[in-house]
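User: Thanks for the earlier help. One more: Histidine kinase. Can you show the sequence and predicted structure together?

Assistant: Of course, both are below.
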Amino acid sequence: MVTLDAIRNCLEGVIPATLATCAADGTPNVSLLSQINYVDGAHIALSYQFFNKTRRNILANPHAALEVVDPDTAVQYRLAVRYLHTETSGPLFESMKARLSGIASHVGMQGVFRLLGADLYRVLEIERVPGVALPLPEPGGNLLSATRRTVERLMVCSDLSCLLDQVLADLEAEFGIDHAMVLMLDETGGSLYTVASRGYPSSGVGSEIALGDGVIGVAARERTPIRISHMTSEYSYGLAALDGTGRTDGGAREIPFPGLREPRSQLAVPIGTVGGLAGILFVESPRDLRFRHDDEDALVTVAAQLGTMMEVLRRPIQMAEPAAEPLATPDAEAIAISHYGRDDSVFIGHDYLIKGVAGAIFWKLLRDHVHHGRTDFSNRELRMAPDLKLPDAAENLEARLILLQRRLVDRCGFIGIEKTGRGRFRLVVRHPVDLKEVQIS
């Protein structure tokens, strides 16, 4: 017996499928399909793009026949299906809309392929069409074994920083994925910020993506994996996001997003926790069809473990052990550090460093250091500090501190944050600083 799970490779859209329908009077009609979406072991979704003969037939007679081809072996399968209903919003619709955009860009039909709805069908029967099969290609890596090894390593991580570094290292070592990043949902729930990345010329730590923007934003908004196998202009981030060209008072405040300029394949997977969405695990490749169903399944499992470990490690931040603290040279000329209260953005000289919650935290640490000579701080006092106005739960405090720590490593060599104990850390300032509070009317 042929199962739908066994032929998911036929649903990638490499070879167009054929859909046969029948009008109410018995007149048959055959059309080509640009996309089939695997839903579960008993259901598929077909793209509804035009109100044509096929659409009229399905509404009049819900039974249809679908023929698909395995792109590796050329084996054909015939599916008996029954139309159930059409979805015009939600996770299934958005996932298919993103994939269709990639297919349209790939074949030069961006203005023609437009998803109107996702037609859900129940698969009643599958039969193999007689014919000669090509030899199977050489097997790649074992994704199940790679997933197991990755999950085992994540389970022994002792802090959030280690967890983020480990998952990106394993994506490269175990899955052969060279470009990946982790983004966390911010406190407002309206955007995500990059907290770790691998495989890019610059880390992009602190760069932001709005909910609903591109593959990452849609996956976060709909809480569903989004996978694209061909380059698409509709779901790319554009040169402005990659170059960080957005400007406001005080200079550029946008950290360039570290994505590929011309990704051919993308996969964004939600990282869930008990409290909801924690963030997104995102991978991409310059190759077409780099990520298939099995890759999606594997990374969904990895993201689930990542979310579980984030829950387990929701405790005071653990960072690298401190070296002996080098003191600032008192005779050196002070470096200006400016703070813009409107969005809590911080500039080192004329260079943008950080904004938002991480910016507010950094400014508080600097003020306490300059005005009171403090160097040692605790997570607890940050959570309780009235001037920071953190959310009651402050669930993302650890992630924000890691973001700040890594951003300082990237952009400010004379200030660092180092661990001194559980839930305690030290601000290390190696050069005199001159703090400037900038008021903009």
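User: Great, one quick takeaway?

Assistant: Residues 5-128 form a domain with the Pnp Oxidase; Chain A fold (CATH 2.30.110.10).
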